[in-house]
Structure formats: structure tokens, C-alpha cells
Amino acid sequence: MKTSQIILSSAFMFVLMTTSCVKDTIDDGLNPDSEIEGEVETPTEELEITQLQIPNGFAFGTEKELSIQINDNTNDVIYDVYAYNNEIVYGEDITFLNEEGEEKTAPEVVVDNLNHILFRGAPSGGKIEHSVVIPSYYEQLYIRRKEGIKYSSSIIDISSNRITYTHVPKAGKNTSVGKGIVEDYLYCVNGSAELFQIDPVTGAYTFVSDMPMGSYTAAIDKQNMLLYSIGKSSPYPLMKYDLVNDSWETVGNVGQGGPRLSYNGADGLLYFSTNSKLYTIDPQNANIISNWNISGLDKEQGGDLDFAADGTIFLCSFSGLYRLDSNGNGNYDAIRISGEDLPFSPTSMTFDSNEELWLANNSSDSNLIVMDTQTGGWEYRYGPNSTSGITFGRTINDLATLSVVDENAEDLDSDGDGITDSNDEYPDDPEKAFEQFTPSKYGWGTVAFEDLWPYLGDYDFNDTAINYRFVAVLNSDNMAVQLDIHFEVTSDGAGLINAFGIEMENIAPSLIESVTGTVLTESYINVAANGTEQGQDRAVFVLFDNNETMVNVPTTVIVKFTTPITTTQLGLAPFNPFLIVDRDRGREIHLPNRPKTSLGVNNKSVEGVNHDMDGNFTTDSGLPWAINIVHNFIPPKESVPVNQAYNFFNEWATSGGELYQDWYKDSNGYRNESQLQD
Fold it and tell me: For 274-311, what is each residue's pLDDT tens digit?
């Protein structure tokens, strides 16, 4: 959508600074209030960043705040709440080779691949209440309820900043569910003819058996304790492994190979897929019974398929995860779920008893990956790319889950906090039970700074950029007892020694028991015994004081509270973040319209033009020196203004955040990749 604004003509040209972010102390004399001699009409997207007309009060926020209340008087239920968005964006055409080596062309699919789980909790006194921050473009919440081993879910429209969800039991139905313990075992096969087992809880690897032939497929009939696998070479035998008696049998020849196989307990058939075809196979004789076409796969090679507990078919290919929906024409449509630049090629997938989806990637040393079927978010759980320290040193070409239910077993509450071990994130700690995430469990947000304040900068927002993830650790009453701050400096374009701190505006320093993990080496930050900064009216902690030493160094700071506090009192992450410029403790840079800490100084008497006389961290035209993006933000290259790297920044800013709320994403046409940092 194009809009226009009146700008200056040839009588006067606005220019950005073209020097490096190694700044001197005087700007280039730019004066946005110079007299206008002539007027021309220019499309908004073509305006220089200093020419933008920013609505009064716009703080360049990419997020919105929600208050969520869940009402449920049922005992022993657990809720997971996600920000939900099912929008799919198709990008430019890409060319690839399928399994047969044929060249194919299809559009790249771009979706949000953050797993936006916001929090997990159990009703205390019949309710859960939390304040959260989500990206502005989300319009719905996905609320998942677990009672015993039964799951249900609802999608709630976000029509205001307060969301109330009340569970209403279905009339006339017994909603109680057996609380038997379920143990999951991941069975893996590969082309080297290995069958092995991995414990999804510990990552422990156990060799099970040599296979008659290497395979790229595995499926388990849980009722009869049988594992099926199709050999990787002609004549593609259907092999059957007896899980109880440890024996192999060849059922018959399928006649074709492929990567995807699952067993459907509802009809007792094997479902087999290759490229854009789906077949059913009779496991008694290996005969193909029926077949369907699949429309909508962006890449047709690789992957796997499996059935969710409700019978929904999920399929992955090398382009990501899909849901297969019957289209009424006797075939299936592939509905895209994941896909924004997945850094792995999925070869296999399986659901465990908790309806978590496990995948493995195509590698000589495969990772095990957990992906959410609602958001497409994922994390490396085990393998060389994970933080678990566990690798298997072998390829995983397919996965299948064996779930064993002990109906007589008791789900223990080892720490006595009222939350059973299977639902407790911290089963051995009575003070901890759940977690709340900002921006999400697997995703990152970014705070990015221009450090010339109060002078104009070049607006590349790469002087200091910090990726963050905040995890509030909650007790069984959904009160915060600890805050884990995971962060990493992703850009240091300043040439100055900058520090980064956080003020918690609702928390007194006395409410902090300890702050550990900060990296302070420059000897000018004075820290009290509990780890907070001295001389502050509110709790402030400086995470690091030398940005140059922190680039690409993942770090975690842990804040413990003296007594549990509500998440409302805790406040909304990233709270009040700020930069301390060049070891000058009083020179703080904050997000627009956010207050300085007790030690911050607004020095109006500076050499040159002070563009922030009122100290609200915006220029007279409304431009900020800091922005918070609830997404992994890639800063522009040096001296490239953010609006030249991100094509819809201007429209977003001049609309007060109403247009292109997701301007920072990797959607088609949104970014100029050549202008972004590598």
C-alpha cells in the first residue's frame, strides 16, 4: 500500500551520516526544521528515514501486551498457551532436485518458525493469571489443556488486551481420565541397517538389532508390538520386527521405495508416501491397497508422515511440516505449517504420548528435533547442534514411537508441590514448577541501539544489538521465583565500549535475593551484595559492561527473588532495557518514552545539536535511538539505515505501527538481503 508525504525539494536535502559508528561528538548539522522552499510529493517507501513523519507518541513497539486469565476448577490439569498465527506466505520460486534427481521448481514458503509458547501452568485456586507480551501481528491465542493423558484445545481471538478463557466440561460426559504413567521409546532405523532405541527423556542410546536390509522407513503397530520397515533397495521388501521376541520376518515386496511410513491403528493399515503420492499397504502381505495425490508440497523429496492422536495426518518433506487435509476430490491438500529457512532437512518424524512431534535431520550425525504442530516452532533436543551434550554419531533415517502405558502406576509428586512429576518442569524442586517465556520458548527477541544519543546517528541500529529470551520460573501457584535471562550480543558496530542493563520498574532492590552470571570487567559498575547495581531506587542489573567481548557469546544471567511475586508485579520483558555508552555511567539510552534509571543523566548542555532536549529518547521528528523487536532481528550493514534494509519499515513507522506489523520478518519482498549483516 503506497502513501505519500510532503518533503523538502532541491532547496535543501536531508542526509544521513555516512561515517562509521565510530562516532565523534557532533552531528553533521542536520536540521529537520529547516525552512521549506518547495514541496514535492514522494512515496513513503522512498523517503529518507529522517524525513519520516512519525505519529505523536508512537514508541516503535513491535509488540502488544495481554492479560490472560484461565478459569478451571478441575484438579490436576495443565495448560499451555501459545500466540497463534496460521498465515502462510509464498516467496520466490526456487529450484531443487527431488529423490529421483529430477529438477523441480516451486515457490519458497515463508512462515513464522518461532514456537510461541507463552507459558505453562496449573490453575491455583481455580485460575491462572499472567501478563504477557506477543508480536503485534498475532490475532489469536492457542490454548491447550491436558487432563491426564487427554488433550483438548481452543483457538481464541484477541479482541482486546484482556483475554478470559473458562473451561466448561461437556454435559453428560465423564471427563475424568486415567492417570496411568506413559513411557515412550523412540525406535530409529537407518540406511546402514541399524535398529536402535533412544530414550526421549535422557537421550540414552541403545542398539537393538541388525536389520535384514538398510531402510529409510519405520512404523510401529503398538497394539501388536510390531515394527515395520521397507528396505531401501529393490525389490523393497516390507520387513517386520517382533519387539517382544526380537525377530525379523520379510512380509513381501512393496515394489517401490520412499521415505515416509506410518501405522494407522484406526484401520490397521500402513500409510506410505513418496514424492506427492500417498498409499495404503496391507501389513499382512505388503500389497498396496489404495493411493492418493498430495497437492501443495513445496519440496517433494525426503521426510516422513505420522498420525496425531485425533487421526490427523502430518507429513514432512525437505521443505518442512504439513497437515494433510482431504480436499473432497479423493485426494489430499498439504497445508503448510513450518518452513522459514529450516536449517535442516527432515528425514523422519513421530508423535510421542504427549503429542510432541520428534524429527531427525539428514546427516551422518543426526539431530533429534522437537517441533510444535500448531506454530511450527522447533528446537534441537539432542545431537551436535543441541546444547544437551548428547550425540549419537549415526544417521537417523526414520523414527517411530512405542508408548507403554502402566495403568496401575502412580504419577508421583516427588517434590510435594502439588504438581505431578510428568507435568512439573522441575520435579525435584518444590519451589519451581512452570515457566513463562518472552518472546517464546524457542525464539529470540532483539534490542538494538544507536549509540550517538543525543546526536543523530546513521540509523543502522547495529551499534549494539542483543538477542534475548526471558524465562520466568514459576512455582505451583504461578508466582515467579526466578528469572533466567538468556542473551547474546549479535552486533557491535559502535567502536565504543558499551554496557547493557535492565531495570525492573516494579521491583525494589530488596526483593532481589541474588543476580548471578553478569560479566563486568571495566570496574565502573558498583554492585551490591545481592548483584543489583548500587544507588538505584529500583532493581537494576548490568548484564555486561564491554560489548566488544560479548559478541556471539551465549550467556545466561539468573535473578532470584527473595519471595515469590506475581507475574504482574514482575512486569513485561524486556522490562526497561538500556545501553550505557562508552563507560560514561550517566549516559543511558532507553527505548522511546522510557525513563532513565536513578543514575542516568540527561545532559542538555552538549557540544553540537542536542536532538533530545526533553530526554524522552526520541528526536523532535519522533525517531528513536533504540528499538525492541520481538523476533530475531538481523541488523543492517554499517551505515545502511534500517529503512533501506527493510522495505516496509517506513510504512510501519509512519502508520504508527498499524501497517506491516511484521516488517522485520523474512517474508517475500520484506528485506534487502544484500544490505543485512551476514
Answer: 889 999 888 988 888 778 899 998 888 888 999 998 88
pLDDT digits (tens, 9 = 90+) for 34-70: 444 555 578 888 889 988 999 998 999 999 999 999 9
pLDDT digits (tens, 9 = 90+) for 631-669: 889 999 999 999 999 999 999 999 999 999 999 987 778
CA 529 to each of CA 263, 571, 583: distance values in angstroms, whole numbers, following the listed order: 59, 24, 22
The three cell numbers of residue 20 are 562509521
Strands 140-147 and 77-84 turn out to be antiparallel
526-559 as b/e: b if 16+ CB within 10 A: eeeebbbbeebebbbbbbbbbbeebeeeeeebbb
pTM: 0.70
Pairwise CA distance, residues 437 & 443, whole Å: 9
Closest to 582 (Cα-Cα) out of 552, 548, 553, 612: 548
For residue 159, the SS3 value is coil
pLDDT (0 to 100) of residue 91:
52
Q: Are 490 and 551 in contact (CB under 8 A)?
A: yes
Which residue has 538505584 as its cell numbers? 536
Cα separation, 618 vs 622, in Å, equals 5
Distance CA 130, CA 124 (A): 12
The residue type found at 224 is N
